[in-house]
């Protein structure tokens, strides 16, 4: 199998190509990271907070979430991961994982160990910059979620969150301007947005009745993308996905 | 001036050494990033949200903060930066900065441009891994602030926040188990922790009266480090600063 062909097809290569035009060496090095393919069932815990020597996983298919548990049993979801995202990139360089990761749907991943990443950086320094870009983008999303919790009303944070997911999925070819398939439950949304499940349902009903967005039967439909964007004050610049910057 | 000596003395080299034993090449490459020294006054805006082609800055002396402004004029402080931190590392690879950065005190920095980072990675791939580690650590702190806002009481989040600052400053040699000098006002704390300035004062008074921590006249003193740590549920593993992992 040719590395270049394989890796151009993957959601991660597609995502990184938005930042940098990848050379043949970059693509081959990236392809070498896809070797250890694994499948996990919905609900499988990939990484447990406090675990040592964790792996990272490049997500090819399905959805996952990263979260922290509080001493009182409450859960704060930090982010959701979709195809093209690297699960546990942050923890792979740490002695112990600082958060847990769980498969939301059945998923297909490639397992990546810390030395794989370091070898890849030595072979293809541009890839190092691209991975730093991807990590920066992940951080920018966590920052938006921080602003959600700190400063946005329940309705605005829901609108902002659904628009962000839509942009991310569009980038890897599994969503468009009309909407996207979404396996999240009201409990996932509640734990991510700092709301109760009842409140989540009320907010979603209100956004639907206003003709802005409908989330039903596993699908999010943007009924009025422009007005939803305005309500959310959504500026997708922090996702930095408007075509390759480096050529 | 010898690069190696210069860079071993810097707070950033000291910080990165916690992750990786830096080789002579790594140190020389790092030293080359310190060339463009700049000083800025307290209150100077280093980076403005939406700005294009921003620089990053390695902070040698002083404190800064990164923040986002909301359409209604509210401010959410994302994090504070102390010596050894890289300001604007996230935005340097983006087309437009996703947040603003301001000097809190007078500061001394080295200005770093995106190509400097890429050249450094090409010369010293281990440095790329170390910078990815530093970025991961920054993200881990933002995640903790997300948990602060989503799931921790005002008192617990203040305790957690002061302990985190203490650990970070200890790492770069400007704090110890007793406490640290701190230029933050109640307004900074309020905008970081999602509280009002009045609430910040009430929480600080209560923590002081309980004999846990005193923040007065620009200094934070840990009156009872063990009990404060217990109250906060503070587990410093996410700062990953217990001695070099890679040799």
Write the layout of secondary structure elements.
The structure is a homodimer of 247-residue chains.
Chain A (H helix, E strand, L loop, with lengths): L2 H6 L2 H6 L7 H9 L4 E4 L4 E3 L8 E6 L2 E6 L5 E7 L4 E2 L1 H4 L7 E4 L3 E6 L1 H10 L1 H27 L2 H18 L7 E3 L4 H8 L3 H13 L3 E4 L2 E4 L2 H8 L15
Antiparallel strand pairs in A: 1-8, 2-7, 3-6, 3-8, 4-5, 4-7, 9-11, 10-11
Helix pairs in contact in A: 5-6, 7-9, 7-10, 8-9
What would your notes on this structure say?
Chains A, B: Residues 18-94 form the Cyclic nucleotide-binding domain. Chains A, B: One of its GO terms (cellular component) is cytosol. Chains A, B: GO terms for molecular function: DNA binding; DNA-binding transcription factor activity. Two copies of one chain form a homodimer. Chain A is of the alpha+beta class and 247 residues long. Chain A has two domains: 3-135, Jelly Rolls, CATH 2.60.120; 137-239, Orthogonal Bundle (Arc Repressor Mutant, subunit A), CATH 1.10.10.10. Chain A has helices at 3-8, 11-16, 24-32, 89-92, 114-123, 125-151, 154-171, 186-193, 197-209, 225-232, and strands at residues 37-40, 45-47, 56-61, 64-69, 75-81, 86-87, 100-103, 107-112, 179-181, 213-216, 219-222. The first copy, chain A, has a four-stranded antiparallel β-sheet with strand order 1-8-3-6. A four-stranded antiparallel β-sheet of chain A has the order 2-7-4-5. In chain A, helix 7 crosses helix 10. Chain A starts with a helix and ends in a 15-residue tail after the last helix. Mean pLDDT of chain A is 90; it is low at 1-7. The interface between A and B is large, with 49 and 49 residues.
